[in-house]
């Protein structure tokens, strides 16, 4: 009896693997290695590296035979935003000029600070303590210089994009933010590459001007055979942190797991569904600027009719085993719809399992690119394996392809492909998520 059951389970697993045989580990390794290569320069928005990555993803979508999105002439979904960008930065510590990262917070134009009693000074090495200050500037009694330590080096890009060079849709919005900020105490963050004593003298001078920044998602689609006006979205973000402070001679944040792994999955799934043509229309999109404020997914999502989006599979950081071991992944917001149970039902007979998010304290559901559509009621979930509570390579220059398990990535992509089948083919429709007030 036990032997027969085992044989049935093995046969079921082999059948599922056979259905997803288009997904080859060799191709997974090629794509992820290209996206996470040093010549992509960490794929930070506005750099030649991310433009090169966008061209590569576009070429892969072309090979998969995808159509551009309606209204677009190419796979690039381009948009612009406005931000304050430094034109000159000067930092002196103890009379010695330093080239340490300086991050002025808010939309102010000029900062001319020289140490005296009118400034508060803090040393912070904990992200939660730093966020408490940045999100509550009204509680500050003085203009404040914050020396940030090595534990926060991986947050420099996000701090710049979200708090220093935050992007606005219009010049008027930026001007309004600058006017509001002028009534509050100001904050400057400086990355403390060497310890700075509280008694040390310092000077900071920053001049900034309004800059128009160009962004581009990369997106294509397959039109559904029988339900072309119902959409399923597969997504991941292709941007990362760019260049970070040098560690052991390396300064490139390659972003292999975060999120070249998810982008690779999107590319492989575009090929898979071109060979297994869907009944519903399927969109494949690589988002820009997730690390810089989620601008890419927000722009894309706000152009969709949420009532026509049946489900969103956002894929982020699937490069390593989950805490549940091989042949497993977790789904954020698992309890908010029956998306997860549908996927698991479609994998009946296999050894693969989808689990609820084991890190609810991290609030991952609304921290990734699924968030905008989820707030509008779409069953939009993120699939991941990251052990985010103990991943020593997260947001560091160590996030390299050599740290990943490409066989496990391939297995996860295969599981996503098969588990999505009944949704893509119109026989299952996940329940909607409760909408959030804007």
UniProtKB/TrEMBL annotation:
Signal peptide span: 1-20
GO molecular function, one term: metalloexopeptidase activity
Keywords associated with the record: Signal
Domain Peptidase M28 residue range list: 217-416
Gene Ontology biological process terms from the UniProt entry: proteolysis
Protein name (record): Peptidase M28-like protein
């Amino acid at each position: 009896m036990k032997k027969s059951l085992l044989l049935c389970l093995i046969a079921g697993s082999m059948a599922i693997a056979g259905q997803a045989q288009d997904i080859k580990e060799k191709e997974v390794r090629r794509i992820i290695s290209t996206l996470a290569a040093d010549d992509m320069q960490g794929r930070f928005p506005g750099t030649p590296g991310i433009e090169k990555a966008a061209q590569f993803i576009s070429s892969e979508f072309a090979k998969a035979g995808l159509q551009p999105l309606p209204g677009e002439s190419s796979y690039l979904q381009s948009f612009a935003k406005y931000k304050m960008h430094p034109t000159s930065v000067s930092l002196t510590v103890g009379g010695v000029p330093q080239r340490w990262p300086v991050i002025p917070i808010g939309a102010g134009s000029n900062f001319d600070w020289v140490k005296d009693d009118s400034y508060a000074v803090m040393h912070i090495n904990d992200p939660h303590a730093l966020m408490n200050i940045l999100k509550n500037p009204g509680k500050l009694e003085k203009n404040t210089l914050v020396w940030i330590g090595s534990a926060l080096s991986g947050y420099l890009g996000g701090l710049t994009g979200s708090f220093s060079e935050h992007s606005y849709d219009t010049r008027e919005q930026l001007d309004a933010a600058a006017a509001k900020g002028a009534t509050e105490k100001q904050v400057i963050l400086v990355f403390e590459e060497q310890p700075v004593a509280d008694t040390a003298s310092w000077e900071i001078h920053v001049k900034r001007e309004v800059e128009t920044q160009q962004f581009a998602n990369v997106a294509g689609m397959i039109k559904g055979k029988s339900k072309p006006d119902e959409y399923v979205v597969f997504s991941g973000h292709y941007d990362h942190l760019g260049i970070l402070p040098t560690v052991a001679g390396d300064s490139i944040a390659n972003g292999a797991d975060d999120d070249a792994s998810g982008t690779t999955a999107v590319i492989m799934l575009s090929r898979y569904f071109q060979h297994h043509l869907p009944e519903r229309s399927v969109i494949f999109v690589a988002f820009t600027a997730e690390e810089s404020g989620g601008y890419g997914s927000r722009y894309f999502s706000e152009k969709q009719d949420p009532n026509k989006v049946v489900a969103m599979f956002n894929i982020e950081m699937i490069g390593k085993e989950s805490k549940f071991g091989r042949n497993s992944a977790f789904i954020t917001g698992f309890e908010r719809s029956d998306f997860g149970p549908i996927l698991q039902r479609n994998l009946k007979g296999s050894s693969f399992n989808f689990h609820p998010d084991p890190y609810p304290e991290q609030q991952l559901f609304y921290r990734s690119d699924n968030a905008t559509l989820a707030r509008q009621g779409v069953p939009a979930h993120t699939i991941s394996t990251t052990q985010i509570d103990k991943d020593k390579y997260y947001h560091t220059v160590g996030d390299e392809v050599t740290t990943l398990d490409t066989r496990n990535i391939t297995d996860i992509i295969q599981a996503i492909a098969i588990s999505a089948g009944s949704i893509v083919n119109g026989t299952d429709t996940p329940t909607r998520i409760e909408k959030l007030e804007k």
